[in-house]
């Protein structure tokens, strides 16, 4: 009997020693009191949400807080805290060393795009590491704190990431170790929120969270020994909540094919910026209205709004036509002849579909004739439109007709057979007409009856070129590049004749 009692006493002693060796926990009552206290405090704050400005990061933060959009402040913060504990596994994987301090050893860098025109509010280093923890679900104390800080700011609380020394709980180490945590400021008081330590105290998220480190202040923070200068320098990089984020102006510079342009970037309105053109035969800097603003290779100006400048070199009239484009010479020649202009300054848009309005305008300019009458029988061609004179000329000469007596359909696309028909009508109008020749294309039977003779004459004049597969594709829609190339060939034929 005594032996059994002795064994029982020994067992109880061992259990007592094991229990006293467990990490410090708070009672259920103490947890409830802490949570109730923080609920009262957090719910008194008027939220001022602050995005990071990095769409990829903000999307992840929104995914976490969106389910609690209609909840009170406390519930939102608690949900953020829970997410960090339950979704981030402690790991040194993204670091090049597995001991603290290792914050300078984070070796995963993301090329995160920033929202143009928005002043930065949060240190990029912290955003980058938070993005890793949010997307890869791993990290160390710094990363838990970064996620918690960003979530708190996204919800609308003034929050910061602080680092320093931490006195470990019994059973989790000896003495002090380098550590990172989050702080939320309510009034003039900072409260510590440390999801990484609560992650440890609930068995690495295998047991219920006890919220021991949820909202510590005053004497409760004795384990935390902040690095005052380091934290102050980091805090200064945060944009205070409620601050109207200054709109940044973005300067972008590009160059035509023969040169390079340097100087793109963002700045505050009123800043002085210098851009540089590098290359021979520099003509000048042109704005989006096609106006030359400077002929100096290095141009300094004061930025007031988003600005795009094009450095033009040599005789390169179109920025979007490279030296290797098959239609480059024809587009340039047509522009020099004042037959074609870009869809906007220095932009040719060779791949854009040629419309009926564009087609008749090309022919009108190529003919170089005056408009004898401005009578337009088409209800969809208003006087004053850029193509109105060309339509009036084309209708009067019989070169172009409407799709109906009262409709011209200026925006409709032009097919290959239609444009070639217009070219042959212009040739006839000018008193020159090529002979007819047989068509040997494999799809010649698909040519419309009105276009058969014009295509036969275009073939004879050397204007018509089929495709490699032996087809001519008469109903294929024509691009601006193809239309201008056909027109330049036509003009060469006219001049030869």
Strand numbers in spatial order across the main sheet: 6-5-4-3-7
CATH topology group of the largest domain = C8orf32 fold
Please state the oligomeric state of the protein chains shown.
single chain
Order of helices and strands: HHHHEHEHEEEHEEHEEEEEEEEHHHHHH
Query: What amount of the residues lies in strands?
Result: 15-25%
Helix content: 25-40%
Structural class: alpha+beta
Q: Based on Cα principal axes, name the global outline.
A: elongated
What top-tier CATH class of the largest domain fits best? Alpha Beta
Q: In the residues, how many domains can be counted?
A: 3
Mean pLDDT over the full residue set:
87
User: Over the alpha carbons, how many angstroms does the gyration radius reach?
Assistant: 37 Å
Total number of beta strands: 15
- Low-confidence regions: 1-30
Task: Report the major sheet.
Answer: 5 strands, antiparallel
Distance between the termini: 130 Å
Key features of this structure:
497 residues; C8orf32 fold; 3 domains; five-stranded mixed β-sheet; 15% strand; elongated
Which secondary structure elements does this structure contain, and how are they paired or packed?
Blueprint: H1 2-21, H2 28-42, H3 55-65, H4 73-87, E1 89-90, H5 124-136, E2 138-139, H6 141-155, E3 159-167, E4 176-186, E5 189-193, H7 195-201, E6 214-216, E7 224-226, H8 228-235, E8 249-255, E9 260-262, E10 265-267, E11 272-278, E12 282-286, E13 292-294, E14 298-302, E15 307-313, H9 328-336, H10 356-367, H11 388-397, H12 416-429, H13 449-460, H14 480-496
Parallel strand pairs: 1-2, 8-15
Antiparallel strand pairs: 3-4, 3-7, 4-5, 5-6, 8-10, 9-11, 11-14, 12-13, 12-15
Helix pairs in contact: 2-4, 3-5, 3-6, 4-6, 4-7, 5-6, 9-14, 10-11, 10-12, 10-14, 12-13, 12-14
């Amino acid at each position: 009997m005594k032996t059994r009692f002795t064994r029982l006493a020994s067992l109880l002693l061992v259990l007592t020693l094991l229990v006293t060796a467990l990490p410090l926990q708070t009672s259920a009552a103490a947890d409830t009191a802490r949570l109730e206290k923080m609920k009262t405090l957090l719910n008194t704050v008027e939220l001022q949400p602050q995005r990071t400005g990095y769409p990829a990061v903000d999307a992840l933060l929104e995914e976490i807080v969106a389910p609690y959009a209609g909840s009170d402040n406390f519930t939102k913060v608690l949900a953020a805290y829970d997410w960090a504990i339950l979704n981030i596994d402690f790991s040194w994987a993204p670091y090049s060393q597995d001991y603290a301090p290792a914050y300078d050893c984070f070796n995963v860098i993301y090329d995160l795009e920033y929202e143009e025109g928005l002043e930065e509010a949060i240190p990029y280093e912290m955003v980058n590491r938070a993005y890793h923890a949010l997307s890869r679900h791993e990290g160390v104390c710094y990363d838990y704190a970064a996620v918690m800080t960003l979530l708190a700011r996204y919800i609308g609380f003034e929050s910061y990431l602080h680092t320093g020394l931490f006195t470990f709980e019994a059973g989790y180490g000896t003495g002090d170790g380098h550590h990172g945590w989050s702080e939320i400021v309510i009034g003039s008081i900072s409260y510590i929120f440390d999801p990484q330590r609560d992650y440890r105290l609930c068995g690495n998220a295998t047991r219920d969270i006890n919220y021991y480190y949820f909202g510590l202040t005053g004497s409760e923070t004795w384990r935390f020994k902040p690095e005052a200068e380091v934290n102050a320098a980091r805090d200064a990089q945060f944009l205070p909540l409620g601050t109207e984020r200054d709109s940044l102006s973005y300067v972008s510079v590009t160059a035509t094919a023969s040169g390079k342009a340097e100087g793109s970037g963002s700045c505050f309105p009123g800043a002085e910026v210098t851009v540089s053109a590098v290359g021979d035969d520099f003509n000048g800097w042109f704005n989006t209205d096609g106006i030359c603003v400077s002929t100096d290779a290095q141009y300094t100006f004061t930025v007031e709004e988003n600005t795009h400048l094009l450095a033009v070199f040599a005789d390169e009239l179109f920025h979007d036509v490279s030296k290797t484009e098959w239609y480059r010479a024809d587009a340039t020649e047509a522009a020099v002849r004042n037959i074609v202009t870009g869809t906007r300054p220095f932009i040719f848009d060779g791949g854009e579909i040629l419309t009926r309005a564009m087609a008749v305008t090309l022919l009108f300019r190529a003919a170089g004739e005056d408009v004898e009458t401005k009578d337009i029988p088409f209800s969809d061609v208003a006087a004053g439109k850029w193509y109105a004179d060309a339509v009036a000329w084309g209708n009067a000469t019989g070169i172009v007709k409407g799709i109906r007596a009262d409709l011209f359909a200026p925006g409709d696309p032009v097919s290959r057979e239609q444009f070639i028909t217009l070219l042959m009508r212009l040739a006839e109008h000018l008193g020159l007409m090529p002979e007819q020749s047989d068509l040997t294309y494999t799809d010649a039977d698909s040519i419309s009856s009105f276009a058969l003779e014009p295509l036969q004459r275009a073939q004879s004049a050397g204007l018509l070129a089929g495709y490699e597969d032996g087809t001519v594709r008469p109903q294929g829609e024509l691009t601006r590049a193809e239309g201008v190339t056909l027109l330049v060939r036509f003009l060469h034929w006219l001049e030869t004749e």
